[in-house]
Amino acid sequence: MTASPELGTPQTATPELFKSVFRQHAAGVAVITAQRGGRPAGFTATSLNSVAAEPPLISFGIGTGSSSWPVIAEAEYVGVHILGEHQRELAAAFARSGADRFGPATDWHPGPEGVPVLNGVLAYLVCRVVARVPAGDHRIVLARAVAGDPAGAGRPLLYHQGRFNALRD
Fold first, then answer.
1. pLDDT at 71 over 70
2. pTM score, two decimals?
3. Are the C-beta atoms of residues 50 and 148 closer than 8 Å to each other?
4. How many CB atoms lie within 10 A of CB 126?
5. pLDDT tens-place string over residues 11-63
6. Closest among 60, 32, 58 to 44, alpha carbons compared
7. Rounded CA gap, 147 and 53, in Å?
8. Cα–Cα distance between 28 and 7 in angstroms, integer?
9. pLDDT for the residue 9
10. DSSP codes, 121-166
11. What is the CA radius of gyration of the chain?
12. Which of 163, 40, 159 is nearest to 99 (CA)?
């Protein structure tokens, strides 16, 4: 086993340190969607996790200050979309505050349970929300998959060092 170079002196955990450490962590990119009162909402998430296969559960985090939080806070169902490397602009639009996320540039349709489903994604699930767990200034949403489609083509979009990236071999 080869020795790795020693890292620096440990620093006190601050929000800045925490963010710096997680910039080193590459994550898949998803868009979470929901609808309330005919108004669709959505946001880009890199916190998506598979929790269990039986029953099929996922989790994701959302800030309570997010413009999408009021809809997610009351939604019975959410859409979970796995983005492909060809969807950097879509990821950026759903990450940008104040963007018209469901405007003419976004190709979507109403899916199962009325959830907005984005077209052209690698895969998607429609999930029934089962819990919203307080976690600092965020909520961890647990949801059970009820429908989906894994048949999209392409390679996944990743987020690393504050940028959207493609997977390299």
1. yes
2. 0.91
3. no
4. 21
5. 898 988 988 888 888 899 999 999 988 889 999 999 999 999 999 999 999 99
6. 32
7. 14
8. 26
9. 86
10. -SEEEEEEEEEEEEETTEEEEEEEEEEEE----S-BEEEETTEEEE
11. 17
12. 40
